[in-house]
Design brief:
The chain is 51% helix and 10% strand. The protein is α/β, with parallel strands linked by helices. A hairpin with an 8-residue loop joins strand 1 and strand 2. The longest helix is centred in the N-terminal third of the chain and has 28 residues.
Length: 745
């Protein structure tokens, strides 16, 4: 395992942890240990790029982009350090974008439909839909990378170029596509050679291993476990930080991508298990040190066509090393099925209950069904990648961008304001009529659906318009070279080169909307305690002067997450309404839209821009997240929550569906606690659930952590699809976790 001295230096490789750090802007920082004389600083690189752009501005975008990336890679300061087995680059803030991506993005906006550009701005500012162009859910074909290495991928691309020339299919677009790949991959190989030449001049203990590793990767594919790890890291750091494509999985299942190397090296005596654990610890620490707020994902496990589990002995080693390091980044996704070995489940459960480890449990049966629902074969679905938080996609043949975070709670708000956004002071929704003229619950519910439908459909129009320029703005040469389908088609992976060119439309603030609809039904129309107009006035004034009514509504049993029959019937219908409006609707890139039940940070961002709601929520408070209840409203236990969540038909969400569960430590302690957790997980799986993640908290402990943060430096919290430290959260966010912890005690 990594020793304490090396760990100290690796933790400072990307930024100084003693200084203020913004995890959302993580690539803007510099760490320690870089070789100043090996390259230029940021300012010098930017000047050189600006000069280069005068020579490349008339070139096709893939070529101009590749040349800019080549310049950065040629002039980057390097990191070959005695305290680390892994190399590094100094300037990680996507500097090549200054003369390519950033300029072309602005250019594309001028070419787009002006009305839709304005609507996009309105949706974002009002908090109705968070919508942007997404390049952050990319998984390369790691199998090709491992089998061919960087030189082999370059050679394969050259061979496909020859085939297109022979077949008469070499268009100008295809020529620029192959030029971009050749320039960029040649630059990557030259970078590795530059690292190699510096490493071989060093005399520190690790230098010879690093040198030999770099030589092998410069000349071909990885031949052992350490080389495979180094390749993953080099691809990641260049793609995410020099290019502009986040690498949203380390391996096509990290355990399976590396298992062949692990097994061969152990059997041959090349490495011992302790050697493997040592390399792995340095590898995992790279992402812990980078400090991405969202976390860097990798997944493990799966099931093959014969029904056998794909977990292996190395899978357990990964969990054990991660456990021993006591980190929360990278984050781990576990593919779960009825055949998942108990030693894997128990290890993961124990990690979660001891330290809230950054693990999400992803149930294969529903996920496979979801992937097949937009045209994938069983074989394609079985080998699906998990990207980002828990999103699914066809391996090496799907580009899926998350294009719109639709705020269901805003649709409720807009019924009361006739589509006018009070916070933004502009008409953003549609006119569904003066609230005083709505006389029945049926009319109110229908108006809500029409507002929701408008947000969904307009988001699709905006996306279709914007995504005409995906590969124009950001050619994906590095990614596309790993995808054989893209090479066969002679097209950029983000320009129609793959089989599945899809979009995901996110269902956000759902439980807040459900509970609000139920409050209107119960208190306005069933019990007739007030009129819709009176409720509209109360909401406009943020419940001021009506605290008793607000608390009465919040205490109503008709809340999503409690297995309440009426509520769950409406929730199920609303969920199906959303998925049917989204799933398999053709997009603008020859693919389809996919519904996704995931919120990322929209539950906070949307919440800040959403007014008071009928369920008793105050203006500006966070909304519900994922397919989970409103904070503090699930009072009937985990079984009731599972009943409510699975009534939403999780497999109807073709990109992902996740439930956040909170349990008290006393419920999952000891050997019996492991059985309880397995029972919960398997119940959820058997009822058709997709992903589930746990926070195991005692509210008294959380209150103490809030008062005495110095005692809880390592306390982790599962936020949405990632973990963060309790002490890194705002008091407002902490209060929400305390409230939910109180509700389950």
């Amino acid at each position: 395992m990594i020793n304490s001295k090396d760990r100290y230096f690796v933790e400072r490789k990307y930024h100084d942890p003693e200084k203020e750090f913004d995890a959302f802007d993580r690539m803007a920082y510099h760490g320690m240990g870089y070789i100043e004389e090996s390259g230029l600083c940021d300012e010098e690189l930017l000047k050189g790029l600006e000069q280069l752009s005068k020579e490349t501005e008339q070139l096709p975008h893939p070529v101009a982009r590749a040349k800019a990336i080549k310049y950065v890679l040629e002039n980057e300061r390097l990191y070959i350090n005695e305290h680390d087995y892994f190399v590094g680059l100094y300037s990680l803030n996507r500097l090549a974008n200054s003369v390519s991506f950033s300029k072309w993005k602005e250019e594309s906006r001028s070419l787009r439909d002006k009305g839709l550009v304005e609507k996009e701005k309105d949706f974002n500012k009002a908090g109705a839909v968070m919508i942007f162009t997404d390049y952050d859910h990319v998984v390369p074909d790691w199998k090709s990378l491992m089998e061919l290495g960087f030189p082999g991928l370059l050679e394969r691309a050259k061979n496909y170029r020859k085939i297109h020339i022979q077949n008469g299919t070499m268009t100008e677009e295809a020529e620029a596509f192959f030029d971009g790949i050749e320039i960029q991959y040649t630059a990557i190989i030259d970078l590795i050679d530059r690292m190699y030449n510096f490493a071989k001049t060093q005399t520190f203990e690790k230098a010879s291993e690093i040198t030999e590793c770099l030589k092998k990767l410069r000349d071909g594919a990885p031949t052992n476990f350490y080389e495979a790890l180094q390749l993953i890291y080099i691809y990641f750091i260049i793609s995410e930080s020099i290019d502009s494509y986040q690498v949203r999985s380390l391996g096509n299942g990290l355990d399976n991508t590396l298992y062949g190397f692990y097994k061969k090296d152990i059997e041959s005596g090349k490495y011992t298990k302790e050697d493997i654990r040592n390399y792995l610890s340095y590898f995992l620490m790279q992402w812990s040190a980078i400090g991405n707020y969202w976390g860097q994902p990798f997944y493990m496990g799966g099931t093959d066509l014969n029904g056998n589990t794909k977990y292996n002995e190395f899978s357990y080693e990964i969990l054990d090393v991660y456990d021993e390091l006591e980190i929360y980044n990278p984050k781990i996704q576990l593919k779960i099925n009825r055949n998942t070995p108990d030693n894997i489940l128990n290890k993961a459960f124990d990690m979660v209950r001891r330290k809230n480890a950054s693990i999400v449990f992803c149930c294969e049966p529903a996920m496979i069904k979801a992937v097949m629902s937009y045209g994938a074969t069983l074989e394609e679905a079985l080998s699906y990648d998990i990207r980002g938080c828990y999103e699914t996609g066809v391996r090496a043949n799907e580009v899926s961008s998350t294009s719109g975070y639709v705020n269901a709670a805003k649709a409720v708000e807009y019924v009361f304001t006739d589509g006018f956004d009070v916070g933004y002071d502009k008409q953003v929704g549609i006119k569904t009529g003066d609230i005083s003229k709505i006389n029945t619950f049926e009319e109110f519910y229908f108006a809500f659906l029409k507002q929701w439908e408008y947000l969904i459909e307009q988001s699709m129009k905006i996306t279709n318009d914007a995504e005409r320029f995906l590969s124009f703005v950001n050619p994906s040469s590095m990614y596309s070279a790993t995808i054989e389908t893209s090479l066969k088609n002679g097209k950029d992976g983000y320009g129609g080169g793959v089989k599945f060119n899809n979009n995901a439309m996110l269902n956000c603030g759902f439980a807040s909307a459900v509970d609000s609809i139920m409050a209107v039904k119960e208190f306005v129309f069933d019990k007739k305690e007030l009129s819709l107009k009176e409720l509209a006035d109360i909401l406009k004034n943020n419940w001021e002067g009506h605290e008793k009514l607000r608390l009465k509504i919040k205490k109503s049993p008709h809340k999503y997450g409690n297995s309440d029959e009426v509520t769950d019937t409406y929730a199920g219908a609303m969920s199906s309404y959303y998925s049917s409006k989204v799933n398999n609707v053709p997009n603008g890139r020859g693919g389809v839209y996919k519904a996704i039940f995931h919120s990322a940070r929209a539950f906070v961002i949307h919440g800040e821009k959403t007014g008071a709601l009928p369920d008793g929520r105050l203006k500006g408070e966070e909304l519900s997240k994922n397919a989970s209840p409103v904070v503090g409203m699930d009072k009937n236990g985990i079984t009731a929550l599972i009943e409510s969540a699975t009534r939403l038909i999780p497999a109807d969400y073709h990109e992902s569906f996740c439930v956040d569960a909170m349990l008290h430590p006393s419920a999952v302690s000891g050997e019996d606690g492991l059985k309880v957790l397995k029972g919960i997980l398997m119940t959820y799986l058997n009822k058709g659930g997709q992903s589930v993640q746990f926070n195991i908290f005692d509210s008294e402990a959380l209150r103490d952590a809030q008062k005495n943060p110095e005692k809880y430096q390592n306390l982790q919290v599962r936020v949405c699809g990632w973990n963060t430290l309790w002490n890194n959260m705002s008091k407002k966010e902490q209060d929400a976790y305390i409230l939910r912890a109180e509700s389950i005690q």
